[in-house]
Amino acid sequence: MNAQAPPLLLLIPPFTLGLLLGCSDGQLAQSAVDAPCPAGDSDCEAAPTTAPIAAGARYALEIRPVIVGGMTVAASLRSGDEAVLQVEDGVVRTVAPGVAAVLAVGDDGAVVDFTHLVVVKADRLSLHRGGGAERDERPLPEHIQVFPDEELSLSLRTWFGAQELAGNVDEVWSVDDPAFRIVDQGFPQERRVRAPAAGTTTLTIDAVGVQHTLTLEVIP
Amino acid sequence: MTPQLHMTCATGAALLALLLPALACSETTVTVLTQAPPGRQAFVDSETRTLTISRGVAVALECTAWTEQYAGPCRELGIELDDEALVTVLPVHLDALPGQTVRSHAGTVDETTVVGPQDRAGVVLVGAAAGAATLTVSTPDGPPVTLDLVVAEPPAPPADE
Fold this sequence. Notes:
The structure holds two protein chains of two kinds.
Chain A: H1 14-21, E1 31-34, H2 42-46, E2 53-54, E3 57-59, E4 62-65, E5 75-79, E6 85-88, E7 91-94, E8 98-106, E9 111-120, E10 124-129, E11 143-146, E12 151-160, E13 163-164, E14 168-169, E15 171-175, E16 181-183, E17 190-194, E18 200-207, E19 210-218
Parallel strand pairs in A: 2-9, 11-19
Antiparallel strand pairs in A: 1-4, 3-7, 3-14, 5-8, 6-7, 8-9, 10-12, 12-13, 12-17, 15-18, 16-17, 18-19
Chain B: E1 4-7, H1 13-19, E2 27-32, E3 42-45, E4 50-54, E5 58-66, E6 71-73, E7 78-81, E8 87-91, E9 101-105, E10 111-115, E11 121-127, E12 131-139, E13 142-152
C-alpha cells in the first residue's frame, strides 16, 4: 500500500462540515442549541440563541446532540469556567461577566458538542405591557395613568446598552401603596398589577443590582 | 483554512529512519477544529508551534496519522501536559461519516486506500488557569506533535460606571 497524505477531510473547513450535516449550532456541528421560548412567541423562536446573558440569571440552555444518521445520545451540560457560569439541575446559572464554554458531555464522558456563552452585567431594566407572545415591544415611560380597578400585565427586560440580554433574573417587585396589588403567576419576569379605585404609587423593581421604577396614577 | 500542525518526513526523516524504523515515513497531524468566540483566543501559530486559548474557552483538536501501512485517525491517542492545571482535557466524539474517504491513488502501482470508518480521534481542551505549558500529542501511528500551550487570562469586563 502506498503512503497517503492526510485525509481529504482535513482540507474541509469545519463550517462547511456543518453545512453538509445540516442545521446545527454547536461548534462541532453535532448539536442544535436552543433556549426555551414562551408558547406561541414566534419572535422568540426565530431569534438566535446567541444573545449575551445577564449576570445573575438562569438560562435554560438546551443542547440536543444530532449525530449523523439521525442518532442522538444522552448528554449533560458542563461549565468551562465556573467563575462565569455554573450548571445547576441542567440549567445554566450565570455568576459573573465573562465568556465560558458550555459542553454537552455524553454518558461515556466524551464531549458531543459545545458552545460558548457571553455573560454581561445588566446596566438597565425596562418595563413593558403584556408578557410572553403578547409583550409590547415599546418600553413604558416612567409615569403612566390607569383606570380605577384596572389590571395590568407587565414584563421586565434586562439590557446592556442597546442590547437586550437573555436569561431569567431574580427580581423583587414592590409598591409603596399596598392598595395596588401585585400578583406573581409564575411566569419569569412578569407580574400582574391591579390598581385600586383611587391613588398613586411607585412600582419598584430590583434585579441584578439595577433598579427601575414606574409611577402608576389612577384617574377616576 | 483550518490550522494544522505536522511532524513530517521532511523534518529529520533520515535520522528518524535510522533511530525509529517503524516511523521511518510517517506523519502526525493535529488539526484545530473550532474557533474562539469574539474577544477570546483559540488558535495555533504554526510557525512558533504555539496553541493559545483563553481561560474558560474550549477548543477541539483532531489527530490523524499516516504511515506506509496506515492512514486515518490516531490510534491510542495520548495527551501529555507538563502542567495539568492549565487545561481540562476531555475525550470528544467526532462524527465519523464526514471522515469516511475511499479513493484511489494513481502512482507507480495503482492501489486503493480506505480511510475510516474508524471513529475520528481528538480531544477537547478547556482553558482552566492562565499560564504556559508544553502539550504533547502522541500516537503509536506517528511521531509525537509537541506544542507550546499558552492559556491566556481573558480581558477584564468593563468596570461599573
